[in-house]
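Researcher: I'm preparing a figure for a lab meeting and need a structural model of a single chain. I don't have an experimental structure, so a prediction will have to do for now. The sequence is pasted below. Please return the structure as tokens so I can convert it later.
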Amino acid sequence: MNNNILGGLQIINTRNASGLVETRSLDHLLATKPYEMGTILSQIFGNYKGEEVNVLDAVTRGLGRVQKIEIDAFEYDWGVEMAFDESNPIVRAEWNGATVTSTDFAGLNNTTVNLYVKNPYYGVGAILSFDNRDIQVRVQSPGFQFGESSCYSVVMADGNPESYIPYKYLVPGKRVAREGSAYEEGSNDADILNYNNSVKLRNKITTSRMKYDITRSAATTKTIVEWIDPKSGKKSYFFTDKQKWTAWREWYRRLDNYNVYSRYNTRPDGTVKVFGTNGRPVHVGAGLFQQFSPANNRPYTRMTPSFIMDMLSDLSYNKLGKGERKFLALTGEMGMRNFSQMLETKAANFQLTDTVFVSGSGQNLTLGGQFTTWKLYNDIELTVAPFRWLDDPSLNRIMDPLTRRPASSQDMYFLDIGHRDGEANLRKIVKMGSENLVWHTGGSIAPDRNTIKDVNTLRSNGYDGYTVNFLTEGGIMLADASTCGVAKYNVI
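Model: Understood. Here is the structure written out token by token.
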């Protein structure tokens, strides 16, 4: 990624910081540069104001279609009546003690692959994906520096002995990216912060973790420039205040991504072949997209009203009654553009509404919010919303030669967000009392910046700083996946 994010205005390039936040990181993050840098920093952080960090929260606030359920177990069953941080360049990969070649099946039989990447971005338990995002591995040990690269021991995250990493994804210069993290019961590891037939379905809760460290010197350092919290508007000069917001924002961002893209890893015999450092199995539940019905996956090259009407009609036909045919299409910026252009062409025949608000009075009306709804025939209602994960080139590296943007930006994921018998089709599942746990391990200082000057004060370790940990046990439930589908853009 090009670090020159401000074009000709940028005075000095930033350096990516991962894990430990030290005093020297302040310099690299421009926080202690001369006062004139304040304007530039305000522009950078100002871009985050009003941003929807979590897509499920956005759907809840905009449409009220997500139902949260707390359970006291690690797996959940339900019946369905059927009529389903920046990418990291690979330097090299080793398997069975040798560099991987085109004839190898790296990772076969749950064997370890040593993956050398350019940047030290990951902690134990991080889930990484390759150019094909269905191919995922779990980091099994802390990385170590080897020359100008970092080496991580990884295993296939799905635990399938027949799974392996094709050589074409391990060629130097190819990339990996973090999808999320997964841990065993009682784990001590954590990922690090970077900047008409009745069928029974079963899914599992995933334990996700993240942590960050701040030294005492960094925690008590006042920056030269003023920083304004994008959420509260509160002004601060302390680096740690900015770091707290950055950590929470990144935490929700990672949960958001992995709730959608995680891949189920329990074998048909009920076993899990991926283990954490304490020897316990690492359970990963199926993310939202894996729960979609494969039978409803359709390719397309041009978005037309007839294509969308046929798609939604098939998803509704003989399955959903009137009042239940409400769909949300998650798509990228290019998909939103295509949808808008399609509506402009046929605007005279469509009824457009906004699901958030219309403000003003008389002739001064403003259409607000980011959701656009199209009401079709047979009581079908489609709301289209931007889903930024489809636009991220670090995670979606197959490009459309026409737009020179990720091909996934034009994919459309149609979610049945209706309610039947008072129950939402899309549900957020969390383990009781285990959503967004956060705690700190104090050393010479605590998050309130109070240093220790009393010998009788007990702290957990001698670290000159403190560590903050995040943990969530949760997942996603798509009650009836047969009413959901995917329109995949076919790259020409």
